[in-house]
Amino acid sequence: MRIVVFGLTVSSTWGNGHATLWRGLAAALGRKGHRLEFFEKDQPWYATHRDLDVLPGGGALRLYARLADERARVEAALAGADVALVTSYCPDALLATEMVLGSPARVKAFYDLDTGVTLARRAAREPVEWLGPRGLAGFDLVLSFTGGKALRLLTDRLGAKRAAPLYPSVDPSVHRPAPPAAAFRGDLSYLGTFAPSRQRALESLFLEPAARMPNRTFVLAGSMYDASFPWRENIRYVRHLEPSLHPAFFCSSPLTVNVTRAEMAELGYCPSPRLFEASACGVPVLSDGFEGLEAFFTPGEEILVARNADEAMHAVALPRVALERMGRRARERALAEHTADVRAEELVALCERAARGAAEAAEEEELAELARGRGAGASAEPRGDLA
Q1: CA nearest to 166, candidates 92, 232, 115
Q2: How many whole angstroms separate alpha carbon 149 and alpha carbon 163?
Q3: Where are the domains of the chain?
Q4: pLDDT in tens, 293-329
Q5: In the chain, what is the straight-line distance between the N-terminal and C-terminal CA atoms, in Å?
Q6: DSSP state string for 33-90
Q7: Band of the pLDDT at 76, cuts 50, 70, 90?
Q8: DSSP bridge pairs for 189
Q9: Which of 157-161, 221-225, 345-349 has the lowest average pLDDT?
Q10: Which residue has the higher pLDDT, 242 or 201?
Q11: Domain 2-165 belongs in CATH node 1.20.1260.10
């Protein structure tokens, strides 16, 4: 399969969760004989923090300044594509959608890696810059980072013909047990970009326990935190962490926190990539709860779930041996069910089904056109080339 993607970024992990996912998928697809071509707008903030120049798996990274100036290159890529895909937060999503829907690609797809944001904005009648007036109606397949009821909403509210989950994944060649690093050592860690919709859960699971456990060390890594953030004296801050350092970061604390954006938690079935990354490193996760969490990890055995600061503090105080045991079970589950190779297989299978569906729909439309032509006075006798 040749897959052409128009996305936010794959070249920089700064301030976004898209790049790591696409790198893992590109490598996994390449191992299976497929090829990914990724079109990315050359944004200055990503260029400054660019940590990848060559797409893994034999794929191609196409940086551009203005997509409108790249029509010849885009059309050439789409002419040979089996799958053409646009993602949420793609800076040129509307133009890319126009090009994709007008192309000969067998499957025209949209991948919403921010389903909660998309649905929340649409419900509030706010602009969704990656969707045109027709919503998702023109695509053969809509993939979603979030499962559960989000799939029905994508169909009912945004016109998706086929909606299916393609959850986050982990690349075991990147995320695996690693020696701890003194700069990251602590009792509880958190890795994530600042987001207002995560702040309430972060207060309960990380900040309040830090305030009430002054003799413990808490480590936070991520971009977009400033002086207005409610820092505590026992919180160590790492501004930006490149992917190669994530395993050492996770493995430098016996437990790490996952918090879910409020709009995602409301939908359920919304695992963060951090769940899989930390677990693949053999580090247990302390997470807020959401519907469907047990479909990914078993609470109490492979993951800890806390509803408030008291429960979070109890988790931090658990014996190290118990946390290590849980981390081993979590790693086994992550490597069995949540790797980039597993997701690549799911992606290919979903695209193959969508291709069959698109072909059947085209055949039905052709027959309907023929029937309409006959109804308008065409001969009812079969023509030789259709007999």
Answers
A1: 115
A2: 11
A3: 2-165, 182-334
A4: 999 999 999 999 999 999 999 999 999 999 999 999 9
A5: 34
A6: T-EEEEEEE--HHHHHT---SS-GGG-EEEEES-GGGGHHHHHHHHHT-SEEEEETT-
A7: very high
A8: 219, 256
A9: 221-225
A10: 201
A11: no
Query: Taking the CB of residue 69, how many other CB atoms lie within 10 A of it?
Result: 10
Do 2-165 and 182-334 agree at the fold level? Answer: yes
Highest CATH level, class, for 182-334:
alpha beta
Tokens 């977009």: give the residue: 224
From the CA atom positions of the chain, what is the Rg in Å?
23
Of all helices (H) and strands (E), which one includes residue 343? helix 340-375
Under the banding of pLDDT at 50, 70 and 90, the label for residue 384 is very low
Mean pLDDT, the chain, whole residue set: 93
Query: What secondary structure letter does DSSP report for 322?
Result: H
Q: How confident is the model at residue 347 (pLDDT cuts 50, 70, 90)?
A: very high
Q: Is the dihedral of CA 43, 48, 51, 53 positive or negative?
A: positive
pLDDT confidence tier of residue 246, bands split at 50, 70 and 90: very high
Three-class secondary structure of residue 134 per DSSP: coil
Q: How many Å apart are CA 27 and CA 10, to the nearest integer?
A: 12
* Tokens of residue 231, six digits: 């820092």
What is the distance between the alpha carbons of residues 98 and 282, in angstroms, rounded to a whole number? Answer: 44
301-306: which pairs have CB atoms within 8 A and are 24 or more residues apart? Answer: 301/326, 301/329, 302/326, 302/329, 302/330, 302/333, 303/275, 303/279, 303/330, 304/255, 306/204, 306/205
